[in-house]
Design goal:
Blueprint lengths: L4 H6 L7 E4 L3 E5 L9 E5 L11 H22 L3 E5 L15 E6 L18 H11 L4
Antiparallel strand pairs: 1-2, 2-3, 3-5, 4-5
The structure holds adenosine monophosphate (AMP) and zinc ion.
The site of zinc ion has 6 residues, from helix 1.
Length: about 140
């Protein structure tokens, strides 16, 4: 049996405020919300990080993500929302079962999601582009 709390929610061994469910994806409220209505969307299968999830599950996942986002915007009428996924301990991932956060946002909620940014030096942008594009070649 898995020790993973999100696996337990997916298999209904652990309680959750479930919002929506399909064959391979489930969505539920975050227990410690950034703002009320903060919702998580996860694959039911245990994948630690986003890049480990197979395409066919991701197709289902993005459709659920979209449906639940639409429902949140209609139900709560936030001024905006953030969708994000933390992958790896150093990226702030606490639960090692990949999940997408949908966080309703309000003009006065005081949150900052992008505290700093860097600048590329001359040619650096192309170098990073080349490195990543190389891995996309079949
Ligand atoms: P992350 O830091 O991206 O791994 O986020 C993990 C999220 O899972 C946090 O926002 C927690 O509040 C949430 N969380 C942890 N345990 C539960 C649970 N049992 N049910 C719902 N949400 C949970
Ligand atoms: Zn899991």
């Amino acid at each position: 049996m898995s020790d993973c709390v999100f696996c337990k929610i997916a298999s209904k061994e652990a309680p959750a405020e479930i919002i929506h469910e399909t064959e391979r994806v489930i969505s539920f409220l975050d227990i410690n919300p950034i703002n009320f209505g903060h919702t998580l969307v996860i694959p039911k299968g245990h994948f630690k990080k986003f890049h480990e999830i197979p395409d066919e599950i991701n197709q289902e996942l993005i459709i659920v993500l979209s449906k639940v986002t639409k429902a949140i915007t209609e139900a709560l009428e936030p001024h905006g929302y953030n969708i994000f996924t933390n992958n790896g301990r150093f990226a702030g991932q606490a639960i090692m079962h990949c999940h997408f956060h949908i966080v309703p946002r309000y003009f006065n909620d005081g949150l900052k999601f992008r505290p700093t940014s860097k600048s590329y030096k001359k040619n650096e942008m192309k170098q990073f582009g080349d490195l990543i594009r190389e891995k996309l070649k079949n």
